[in-house]
Amino acid sequence: MRNTDSVSIFEMFSEIAVAINENSHRLVRLTDHEGRGDHGAVTPDMFDAIEAELAGLEPSEWTPGRYFDLAAETLLTIPGVAPRLYASAFRRAGSALMRKRSVLSEDFGSAFAAMATSFRDHAEREPGGAEIASVWLRAAKAYAIESAAGGSLSACLKAATEAAEERPAGLPAPGAGELSSILVIRAMRDALSQEN
Description:
It is built from nine helices and no strands. The protein has about 200 residues and is mostly helical.
């Protein structure tokens, strides 16, 4: 497993942007069907803006935490509820990783848990916010369990993704907010689980 450093975090945000854009039409359809908010329309713009902002940076001069902080600052320039929701989550992740240049599995677990807690604390901001929080909290719990058992970052993110994708009995298909959350978590897994 390669070292998780600033380059890895940049690639993670790029992977998220690709995943969101590939599913943008689906997200818009779901949002239109739900008849609430603009989540599907604004989410691709969010991650495109982050990728563009990070692309001009020299990774050796930035820590993973500062990448998350800059992502948060970028989102605050975009109107809408979803950007503010993710900005808060990324800001907390940045704080969890403060000054670390190399991120271990347990470090990223702290950042992941901080994001999940932020979504929970601000669930009322976004239509469907409770469902978004539920996805992240399930994923963070699974990550923590795998991490406590000694799992690698790859194994922890695999467990988190599987938990995010689970549908509790009796619930309908995921809405736009839930789907985008699953896409983000899945992209984190794909980007940070690549071998050297």
